[in-house]
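haha ok so turns out i had the wrong file open the whole time. this is the CORRECT one, sorry everyone. sequence first:
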Amino acid sequence: MTSTPYTVADVMTTKVIAVTPETGFKDIAAAMERWKVTALPVIQGEGRVVGVVSEADLLPKEEFHEHRPGLIEQMRRLGDTAKAGSTRAEDLMTTPAVTIRPGATLPQAARLMTERHIKRLPVVGADGTLKGVVSRADLLKVFLRTDEDLTTEVRESVVKRLFPLSHEAVKVTVSHGIATLTGHVKDHTLIPLADRLTHSVEGIVDVRCRLEAGSDG
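then structure:
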């Protein structure tokens, strides 16, 4: 009943810096510094994502720079010690890459980032080619929508559709992303649904639903 949810395609960054499996350690570090990113997709061929190399993948080289790990430590941290001796993206990257499709919703992207403890996701098409990158900051862009924009969407997508006969008796205000609904409506059973649907509007921070039942709505 509400408008179409925002998708990853709506907020992702399409200008993406990527590296190839052959890219060297210093070039990877330089690219991260220059573009102020913490991870880079690794692409092969015509843009197919084969992995991701992050700051965490580079750190073992610094960690083991001054001392060689003992046998027990090598056995316990095989992945890190291998990366400490690596010089190219293909040996440093995490593979397979955790990716997401452009049509995924923002909650789906946020859930995947949280579950996998990552800050950025390569966005790939059906063929696995890189389309963009979505970051935690990108997911927060919806909260930059103006109060006026949010007010209009709540009124048009929630109030008018749920209460076609009494919508004029409902006042919608949004301040700092917090929506307040006041007034009287004919069908009081729809009030909880109005609260839930208003919460689902992208960019709404909180909802104060103060609708009441009334025959004069």
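Residues 147-162 form the longest helix (16 residues).
again sry for the mixup
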